[in-house]
């Protein structure tokens, strides 16, 4: 029975899932703050500054994550830098996420109209203070929904860590497949685990987004 | 200007409509004679548009029946068949407040579409007829334009031509000028006045009291889902029987 | 660097370019075809059809693309002997079908309610209402997000290299295994993706602006 085998494999896969989730968390810790910085710089008043960062973001968004992973994983050792596969993955994926999240942050910041800036300026509040107390809190609200969808994508793409041998969910499933030759059964179970988490969290995300909208 | 015959063209019998506990129409009956122009006026929320939309079943009445030219429109009014609905709508034309022209089609195609799909005319005949109607509403040079390239008043005149293309026996107008600036509204009202003069049977939901006064044969004032006042424009505007009618008229005429 | 020049690297890695383009174009086209019945079922009046479509779309999108490719190539090919390329095409088409179906669904939902009413009031049959009035406008609305989806499909296609499809990334790995420097090789691969992707994303923005002009609310 397939279910007996699933129960047998489940502990190993859940262990892999733990690594996938840890990867996702670390990637978020790198990619979101970096994305906020890029997002701010891409709305900077200085035109040159703005252009440099917009180009950087566009280039990164145009390159497949896999190319970045391979570049770092196979390229860094020749420069004398050796990192673990996990750390390599966090850096590659974190950079990738920063490019995507910067777009979301930028849209969030632009979403707060110039009326707000004029309002705090007329109250005698400085640019910087106004930005942190007026613009950013409003932008954050607009950003939460798209950000959650991005994190779901990050969780899915963490499966690419399989290619460099990080022992996450897909790697675990594949190695069980390689040992037992029951690739379909074990990969299907992994697929179900991914799907359940992704579907549930995207439902939660759209609920939260809906509530934020109506809460206005 | 009285073109009215005695033949009853449309008979709405005790039309009611509720949304849950909210009764929007409380049993409205209306006999429309061939060639008659009826203006439906009243405060917003009175149920004017809902009643009009019940006449071509865009809104399904909760109870009540329709006869068109002496025949029952539906075997079972509460559960009309698809065929009966399509047949009713081919005989009853409608013009909307927001025009609702098809943005992906040219002006000419807008007018041709239903004629050919409904098997009424061949493509060539339909195009010729559409050109004739465009001339009638004063827009012969807009045939190949897209609706988005036309002004609001032009779009509404095209929408009237589109509805006329099926040779309807009766035309329903749902606040046709409410989305337009007053000076633009006049060009649409003129087309409607010309149409009334050809003997077309028309029911018009409107806030244009001058139009109701000059063009309508009969004015109905709806309030809270009932007919509050009914009569010739002269009676309703100068000799209303109800206190609420006076209040309403004062409010709109002093605007 | 034992006889490796940038030109030979470019032509070596570029040999995978046509496969990358084929993966993207074929799975986009096949996905569009799959998306039509899915979107129709998704917006159907019948609850069973609607739920079935939601289930299929959610599963296609909930399982990561890489896992789909592994399931199809390693899990199913023992039964029907699939080569890497067809396996990748099947997987990517399924995924793009689900994403495009959601775009089409949003297109159908966003056609103004008055459009269907006007079609009804003109006595069009329900079939004509949908196919002659609602559907053409839905396609217009769905086009910009679908064009920008093509760009992410281009990047997703890189995952096909993992099951052995000889695309850009695969050819790059081959060059690295022959001793070429990885940083250079994968930078060249990145440039090749940008060469296809940047025009594609400009095209998608162009589509967006055209549609915006065309489908102004009337």
From TrEMBL, chain A:
<dbReference type="InterPro" id="IPR043429">
    <property type="entry name" value="ArtM/GltK/GlnP/TcyL/YhdX-like"/>
</dbReference>
<dbReference type="InterPro" id="IPR000515">
    <property type="entry name" value="MetI-like"/>
</dbReference>
<feature type="transmembrane region" description="Helical">
    <location>
        <begin position="79"/>
        <end position="100"/>
    </location>
</feature>
<keyword id="KW-0472">Membrane</keyword>
<dbReference type="InterPro" id="IPR010065">
    <property type="entry name" value="AA_ABC_transptr_permease_3TM"/>
</dbReference>
<keyword id="KW-0812">Transmembrane</keyword>
<dbReference type="InterPro" id="IPR035906">
    <property type="entry name" value="MetI-like_sf"/>
</dbReference>
<keyword id="KW-0029">Amino-acid transport</keyword>
<comment type="similarity">
    <text>Belongs to the binding-protein-dependent transport system permease family.</text>
</comment>
<keyword id="KW-0813">Transport</keyword>
<feature type="transmembrane region" description="Helical">
    <location>
        <begin position="186"/>
        <end position="206"/>
    </location>
</feature>
<feature type="transmembrane region" description="Helical">
    <location>
        <begin position="53"/>
        <end position="73"/>
    </location>
</feature>
<protein>
    <recommendedName>
        <fullName>ABC transmembrane type-1 domain-containing protein</fullName>
    </recommendedName>
</protein>
<feature type="domain" description="ABC transmembrane type-1">
    <location>
        <begin position="17"/>
        <end position="205"/>
    </location>
</feature>
<dbReference type="Pfam" id="PF00528">
    <property type="entry name" value="BPD_transp_1"/>
</dbReference>
UniProtKB/TrEMBL annotation, chain B:
<keyword id="KW-0813">Transport</keyword>
<keyword id="KW-1003">Cell membrane</keyword>
<dbReference type="InterPro" id="IPR027417">
    <property type="entry name" value="P-loop_NTPase"/>
</dbReference>
<dbReference type="GO" id="GO:0005524">
    <property type="term" value="F:ATP binding"/>
</dbReference>
<keyword id="KW-0472">Membrane</keyword>
<dbReference type="InterPro" id="IPR030679">
    <property type="entry name" value="ABC_ATPase_HisP-typ"/>
</dbReference>
<dbReference type="InterPro" id="IPR050086">
    <property type="entry name" value="MetN_ABC_transporter-like"/>
</dbReference>
<comment type="similarity">
    <text>Belongs to the ABC transporter superfamily.</text>
</comment>
<keyword id="KW-0547">Nucleotide-binding</keyword>
<dbReference type="InterPro" id="IPR003593">
    <property type="entry name" value="AAA+_ATPase"/>
</dbReference>
<dbReference type="InterPro" id="IPR017871">
    <property type="entry name" value="ABC_transporter-like_CS"/>
</dbReference>
<dbReference type="Pfam" id="PF00005">
    <property type="entry name" value="ABC_tran"/>
</dbReference>
<dbReference type="InterPro" id="IPR003439">
    <property type="entry name" value="ABC_transporter-like_ATP-bd"/>
</dbReference>
<keyword id="KW-0067">ATP-binding</keyword>
<feature type="domain" description="ABC transporter">
    <location>
        <begin position="10"/>
        <end position="249"/>
    </location>
</feature>
UniProtKB/TrEMBL annotation, chain C:
<comment type="similarity">
    <text>Belongs to the binding-protein-dependent transport system permease family.</text>
</comment>
<dbReference type="InterPro" id="IPR010065">
    <property type="entry name" value="AA_ABC_transptr_permease_3TM"/>
</dbReference>
<keyword id="KW-0812">Transmembrane</keyword>
<keyword id="KW-1003">Cell membrane</keyword>
<feature type="domain" description="ABC transmembrane type-1">
    <location>
        <begin position="17"/>
        <end position="196"/>
    </location>
</feature>
<dbReference type="InterPro" id="IPR000515">
    <property type="entry name" value="MetI-like"/>
</dbReference>
<keyword id="KW-0472">Membrane</keyword>
<dbReference type="Pfam" id="PF00528">
    <property type="entry name" value="BPD_transp_1"/>
</dbReference>
<keyword id="KW-0813">Transport</keyword>
<protein>
    <submittedName>
        <fullName>ABC transporter permease</fullName>
    </submittedName>
</protein>
<feature type="transmembrane region" description="Helical">
    <location>
        <begin position="52"/>
        <end position="76"/>
    </location>
</feature>
<keyword id="KW-0029">Amino-acid transport</keyword>
<feature type="transmembrane region" description="Helical">
    <location>
        <begin position="12"/>
        <end position="40"/>
    </location>
</feature>
<dbReference type="InterPro" id="IPR043429">
    <property type="entry name" value="ArtM/GltK/GlnP/TcyL/YhdX-like"/>
</dbReference>
<dbReference type="InterPro" id="IPR035906">
    <property type="entry name" value="MetI-like_sf"/>
</dbReference>
């Amino acid at each position: 029975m397939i279910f007996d085998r699933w129960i047998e494999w489940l502990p190993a896969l859940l262990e892999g899932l733990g690594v996938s989730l840890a990867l996702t968390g670390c990637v978020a810790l790198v990619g979101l703050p970096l994305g906020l910085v890029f997002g701010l710089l891409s709305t900077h008043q200085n035109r040159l500054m703005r252009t440099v960062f917009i180009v950087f973001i566009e280039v990164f968004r145009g390159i497949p994550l896999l190319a970045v992973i391979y570049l770092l994983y196979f390229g860094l050792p020749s420069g004398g830098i050796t990192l673990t596969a996990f750390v390599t993955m966090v850096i590659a994926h974190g950079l990738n996420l920063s490019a995507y999240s910067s777009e979301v942050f930028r849209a969030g910041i632009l979403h707060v109209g110039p009326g707000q800036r004029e309002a705090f300026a007329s109250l005698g509040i400085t640019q910087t203070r106004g930005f942190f107390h007026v613009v950013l809190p409003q932008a954050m609200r607009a950003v939460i929904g798209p950000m959650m969808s991005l994190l779901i994508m990050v969780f899915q793409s963490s499966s690419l860590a399989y290619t460099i041998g990080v022992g996450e969910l897909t790697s675990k499933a594949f190695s069980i497949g390689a040992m037992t030759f029951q690739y379909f059964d074990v990969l299907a179970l992994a697929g179900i685990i991914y799907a359940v988490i992704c579907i549930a969290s995207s439902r939660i995300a759209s609920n939260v987004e809906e509530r934020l909208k109506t809460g206005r | 200007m009285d073109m009215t015959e005695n033949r009853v063209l449309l008979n709405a019998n005790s039309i009611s409509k509720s949304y849950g506990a909210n009764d929007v129409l409380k049993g409205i009956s209306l006999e429309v004679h061939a060639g008659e122009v009826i203006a439906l006026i009243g405060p917003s929320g009175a149920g004017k548009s809902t009643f009009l939309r019940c006449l071509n079943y865009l809104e399904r009445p909760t109870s009540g029946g329709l006869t068109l030219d002496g025949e029952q429109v539906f075997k079972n009014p509460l559960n009309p068949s698809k065929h009966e609905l399509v047949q009713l709508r081919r005989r009853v034309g409608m013009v909307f407040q927001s025009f609702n022209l098809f943005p992906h089609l040219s002006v000419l195609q807008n007018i041709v579409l239903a004629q050919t799909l409904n098997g009424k005319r061949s493509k060539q005949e339909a195009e010729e007829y559409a050109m004739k109607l465009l001339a009638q509403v004063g827009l012969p040079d807009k045939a190949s334009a897209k609706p988005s390239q036309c002004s609001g008043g032009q779009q509404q005149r095209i929408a009237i031509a589109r509805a006329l293309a099926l040779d309807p026996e009766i035309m329903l107008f749902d606040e046709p000028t409410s989305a337009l600036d007053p000076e633009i509204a006049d060009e649409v009202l003129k087309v409607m006045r010309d149409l009334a003069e050809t003997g077309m049977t028309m029911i018009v939901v409107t806030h244009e009291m001058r139009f109701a006064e000059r063009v309508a044969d009969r004015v109905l004032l709806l309030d809270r889902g009932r007919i509050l006042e009914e009569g010739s424009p002269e009676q309703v505007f100068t000799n209303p029987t109800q206190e609420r009618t006076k209040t309403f008229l004062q409010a709109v005429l002093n605007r | 660097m034992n006889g490796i020049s940038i030109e030979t690297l470019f032509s070596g890695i570029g040999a995978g370019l046509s496969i990358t383009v084929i993966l993207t174009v074929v799975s986009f086209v096949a996905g569009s075809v799959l998306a039509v019945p899915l979107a129709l079922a998704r917006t159907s009046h019948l609850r069973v059809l609607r739920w079935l479509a939601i289930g299929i779309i959610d599963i296609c999108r909930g399982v990561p693309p890489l896992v789909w490719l592994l399931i199809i190539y390693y899990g199913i090919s023992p039964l029907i002997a699939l080569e890497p390329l067809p396996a990748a095409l099947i997987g990517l088409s399924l995924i793009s079908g689900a994403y495009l179906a959601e775009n089409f669904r949003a297109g159908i939902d966003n056609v103004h309610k008055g459009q269907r009413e006007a079609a009804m009031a003109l006595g069009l049959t329900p079939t004509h209402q949908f196919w002659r009035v609602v559907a053409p406008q839905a396609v217009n609305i769905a086009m910009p997000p679908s064009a920008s989806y093509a760009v992410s499909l281009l990047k997703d296609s890189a995952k096909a290299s993992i099951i052995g499809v000889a695309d850009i990334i695969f050819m790059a790995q081959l060059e690295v295994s022959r001793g070429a420097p990885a940083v250079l090789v994968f930078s060249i691969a990145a440039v090749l993706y940008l060469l296809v992707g940047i025009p594609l994303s400009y095209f998608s923005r162009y589509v967006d602006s055209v549609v915006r002009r065309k489908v102004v609310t009337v």
